[in-house]
Amino acid sequence: MSPALYHPSDSRPAPPGLSIRATRLEDVDAITALANLPGYRAGTLRLPYQKPELARRWLEGQGAEAFNLVAVLDGIVVGNAGLDRYGGRRSHAAGLGMGVHDDHRGKGIGTALLREIIDAADQWLRIERLELTVFADNLRAIRLYERFGFEQEGFLHNYAFRAGAFADAHLMARLRG
């Protein structure tokens, strides 16, 4: 049996001063700075020392189906999240990626980002299945995803080489119903 789907009233309020908005081309430097933080990077497949050109190409290359947000706290980008909708017979599904600034974890920013992503997926994009991969040692993220109805569907041994060792990961998904 699937867990109950997330409802907006289930989550804690966003921190004061936090706003969520669409990414902009002028966010390139802020997104690059996030990607270069050790904790943020540890949850991704990114290499150290990301260049702004990579973020610029990513932002400029977004298609019409892309849905990407940033979390801004008191004027500073402190998180980002996005959906990558699949095509063809998988157009009902999308991959989810997100991250929060190392110094701002545990403040409700990930919750606020995920709330907006899921609202868009359910209410505007008619996405029935959200998928993600999360490193097995990222317990805080796993608990967040579970609160929003994600379930583990698989386990990937030695998924990626990170900080000198192989790391395992969970495949998780949330079905709209």
UniProtKB/TrEMBL annotation:
<dbReference type="Pfam" id="PF00583">
    <property type="entry name" value="Acetyltransf_1"/>
</dbReference>
<keyword id="KW-0012">Acyltransferase</keyword>
<protein>
    <submittedName>
        <fullName>GNAT family N-acetyltransferase</fullName>
        <ecNumber>2.3.1.-</ecNumber>
    </submittedName>
</protein>
<feature type="domain" description="N-acetyltransferase">
    <location>
        <begin position="18"/>
        <end position="173"/>
    </location>
</feature>
<dbReference type="InterPro" id="IPR000182">
    <property type="entry name" value="GNAT_dom"/>
</dbReference>
<keyword id="KW-0808">Transferase</keyword>
<dbReference type="GO" id="GO:0016746">
    <property type="term" value="F:acyltransferase activity"/>
</dbReference>
<dbReference type="InterPro" id="IPR016181">
    <property type="entry name" value="Acyl_CoA_acyltransferase"/>
</dbReference>
